[in-house]
Please model this.
Amino acid sequence: MARAARRGLQPYGPRWLQQRLAQLLPGFPDSPLCVAFSGGADSTALLAALARLPRPPLTLRALHVDHRLHPRSGRWGAHCRRIARALGVPLAVRTADIARRRGESPEAAARAARYALLGASLAAGEVLLTAHSEEDQLETVLLQLLRGSGVAGLAAMPEVMPFARGWLARPLLPRSRAELRAWVSAQRLAWIEDESNASLTLDRNFLRLQVLPVLHQRWPQAATTVSRTARHAAEAQRLLDELGEADVARAACGAALSARALRALPPDRRRNALRYWISAAGRRPPPSRRLEEIAGPLLEARADARPRVAWEGAVVERHAELLTLAEPQVAAAEAGSGLETAWHWRESPTCTLPASFGRLALRHEARGPLDLEALEALGPTLTVRARRGGERLRPGRGGRRRTLKNLLQEMRVPPGERSRLPLIFAGGRLIAVAGIWLDESVQARAASTQRARFLWGESG
Model:
């Protein structure tokens, strides 16, 4: 523990972890906690220390994800069950179905599948705890540097962030792997050694086994100092997000953006605003080349050109002076005047519509434009239907009620697109148009604490 003493840290253990969680989580110890438990030394140190804290008031459980990538993965799940049982912590095992996207590494595909399962298993308000250490942060920063990432990438892993219906926290980022392993050994706890961690074909393993030992010989405090750099980058990214949020708010027309307002921004702020808009909508940020296309040629194209830029999982289209963001759409859409369906949104956050209308989803989001409390007050059932004519809503706070026809004409939405926009009603009143406009009655305000967003994309 000499290294911890030099850094002014208490020795690792339940007392330190309790103080750390109190710093990170304003609701601690009342917030329910869920540990992502792999069975390795780090997650064993996290779960065992938490298990030694008083329960109640602490509410604690664990989740283990079986990726089915190793012939012994079933034994690892059994090991995790034994450890959790010995610690008196409820544990659930989830089995991943890993599907690699084109160009995606096995490591990235497994990570995506793992977090998808963890997120789907998280209860409302629950905090998912992962056992990432100081060295994990160092590896992440180096990998991001080698990939040419910007400020957001160099910020690496935040200590706390919104996740699924709750939060994700990494309380062990200030601790080293050596400290955690020493504590687990002192507690006489067994852990899993994953043989795949020795494979040099994976980038992170190559860094861990071949590069970091050399770095640590020359710079013993490399993990600590690079973690500090990540915190500086995170602060810078928060400022960029605040600027992007303000620029997007000025350019916003519902969920769409005004091309005219974006063109008025300097190129760097324009790219930042677009990046923020895309990320805030829950889409994967575009590669640099695609972002340049959106910020340049797409915005400068003729008004009747209807340009589009697509990348994996998203597409930005410009209809005259309006930019919209969605999943890749079905190219040809049929008119669907007969659409009318009930959406029990509390029971199912996704509403699948006929093929020409795509799919609607309601996603909880910390900065979303929809006030969930206002939506709750309208009841558990919404009605989704196509245009019939005469629909009105109030898209601007304090403004007048507008006909949907005039809004669509002003934004020069092509007639073929207008007929396939799903309209969302509550008690006969129009409250949203696809993922584009929200009525003032359900728009989030500064004091709104529960927020969400309607998303509209292709079905399936």
About this structure: Residues 134 and 255 are 39 Å apart (CA to CA).
